Amino acid sequence: MDIRAQYAPLRGALDAALADILDTGTFILGPRVRAIEEAVSVRLGNRPCVGVANGTDALVIALQALGVGPGDEVITTPYTFYATAEAIARHGATPVFVDVEPVGACLNPDLIEERITERTKAIIPVHIFGHAAPMTSILTTAAENGLSVVEDAAQAFGSADGEWAVGTMGDIATISFFPTKNFPGIGDGGMVVCGDSDLAATVRRLRFHGSEDKQTFTEVGYNSRLDEIQAAAVNLFLPHVDGWNDRRRQVAEWYRDAGLGQYVTLPEERDGVRHIYHLYVVRHPERDRLRDLLQQDGIGAVVYYGTPMHMQPVFAGLGYAAGDLPVAEEWARTGLALPMHPNLTREQVDEVVAAVGRAVERI
Q1: Of 209, 239, 269, which residue is a domain's last?
Q2: What is the pLDDT, as a whole number, of residue 2?
Q3: Fewer beta carbons under 10 A from the terminal one: N or C of the chain?
């Protein structure tokens, strides 16, 4: 990734916004936070939005707002960043891992029903790498079983499943503004997108110690407030996200046109999905060797989620074994992220493809 190149054209506006914040002395939950909450709300069908300190807190607070607690079970994917499962366990609930579908590596809706029990409270599909999860089927299963749905949209702002934008389909959704995300800030930041105003009111209380007025405390909450510096950056970046996503899609097309698919398995799009390629994850049976050779050749290549959640030491007590979730394990064993950001040129893409070709010949 090349974070600085992405915001370099906006550096003057960023400097001016930061100077204004210093001049006004308003740092927490000020007008810029309200502005980005409103702007994202308009973008996502006028769903109420609440800025929080980071994407992990967004998940934790979202689950508490939906009433998830000790003894509950929450179904989710094993092929994701740890925060998704961690947020479930933080409430004393149990993450129940269901295998992913092979095309987009998202939660497989056909396998959810068999894992639902009387303790199941919610489902968290993750729109992984910028590819929207199969939400129609997931929502149908959730509705039939009286379950809440939390969209983990940390990697997929601007993606869509058919006509439905990511973040508008579940009961609640979470966004991360971590600097490497496709909708970035310049530090930690996050947002909770709520299906109704009652949920939003609960989330607002929870982000501020369970209080509406700083005097009366009705819940055990958090100190999780989006600050004005991050809000200023995200406000500046929002108008550019669609263009950045379009360029990511262009880069993905260049990779395909340049013949990368003769060396590795390319990422695909499920029918009807708008993939925004937050990460460009290819697959190869000798993934680790390929990564090492590319890095020696000066090409960025990174393994994401090489140990799926059900195989992580922290969840050893849940009783999963190798082979239980084979599709997720295959992605974890073979997936490799190649360079992907809006500032990549066609020449750089060709350079990456040539390096992959040389590496594969050596394996």
Answers
A1: 239
A2: 83
A3: C
Does residue 167 share a domain with residue 147?
A: yes
Write out the two tokens for 162.
């058919």
Do 27 and 89 sit in the same domain of this protein?
Answer: yes
Full domain range(s) for residue 54: 3-239
Q: What is the pLDDT of residues 320-330, one digit of tens each?
A: 999 999 999 99
Q: For residues 268 and 103, is the Cβ–Cβ distance under 8 A? A: yes
Q: With contact defined as beta carbons under 8 Å apart, do 107 and 133 qualify?
A: yes
DSSP of 90-136, one letter per residue? HTT-EEEE-PBPTTT--B-GGGTGGG--TTEEEEE-B-GGGPPP-HH
- Rounded Cα distance between 119 and 137, Å, is 21
Domain count, the chain: 2
CATH of the domain at 201: 3.40.640.10
Q: What is the pTM of this model?
A: 0.95
Instruction: Please state at what angle helix 228-237 crosses helix 11-24, rounded to 10 degrees.
Output: 150
Q: 8 and 35 share a domain? A: yes
**For residue 6, what pLDDT is reported?**
85
Q: Give the HSE-up count for residue 73: Cα atoms under 13 Å, Cβ half-sphere.
A: 12
3-state DSSP assignment of residue 244: helix
| Same domain? 234 vs 259 | no
